[in-house]
Amino acid sequence: MNYEKIVAQIVADSRYQKNIEFGQPRSGHPEGKVKNHISDLEVNLEKLRSRIGNIEIYWKLKFLIHIHDTFKAEAVSGVLATDPHSHETLARNFASEFIDDNDMLNVIQFHDENYFLWKQFKNSGQYDISHLKFLLEKIHDWNLYLIFTIIDGYTLGKDIEKLSWFIGEVKKIKSVMIDETWATLT
User: Fold this and answer.
1) How many CB atoms within 10 Å of residue 19?
2) What is the pLDDT of residues 105-133, one digit of tens each?
3) What is the pTM (predicted TM-score) of this model?
4) Mean pLDDT across 14-43
C-alpha cells in the first residue's frame, strides 16, 4: 500500500477538508481546530523522523495523523470508541475507504484508549488491566501504536507524563523497541 498517495487522496477529500475546520480551544486541545492539531502532530512526526528510519512507517504515521481526529465534527462526544457515532469509529470507517489493513484500522479505532487507562490510573492509582489486555490483543504493531501515541500525546494541553507511564505498562506485557526515551521530543 502506498500511504503517501493515500494521504494525498485523504487531504483532497471534501469531507476531510470540511471536518478539519472543526473545533474550539478546549481542555486537552488548546489549539482548537482539528487542522491545528494535525499541524502540531506533523511537527512531532518530523522530530521523530530520524529515529523512525523506515519510510513506510513514516507515511503510516502521517496517515494516522490526518485520519484519527478528523471526524470529531460529526461525532457524538462521550461515547465509547466502539460506538458507531464515536469519532474513532467514524474515522475508522472513513479510513476503510482507502485501506484494508485491519491493524491500522484498529490503531485508528483505539488511538485514545491509552488516555482512558491513564485517567483511571491517575484518579485511583490503578486501572482496568483487562482493558489493557483487550487493547494488546487488538493491536499487532505495538511499535507503531506507541510512536503514534507519543506523536498525538506530546502536545500542549496534554499530560505528557502519561506517555512514559503507558509505554512502561505495555513493556510489562509486550516486547517493543519503543521505550520511555522516545517520549521526550525536545
Assistant:
1) 24
2) 999 999 999 999 999 999 999 999 999 99
3) 0.95
4) 92
Distance of CA 110 to the CA centre of its chain: 8
Name the CATH code of domain 3-183 (choices 1.10.3210, 3.30.420, 2.70.70, 1.25.40).
1.10.3210
* Cα–Cα dist 3/32, whole Å: 27
| CA 138 from centroid of its chain's CA atoms | 14
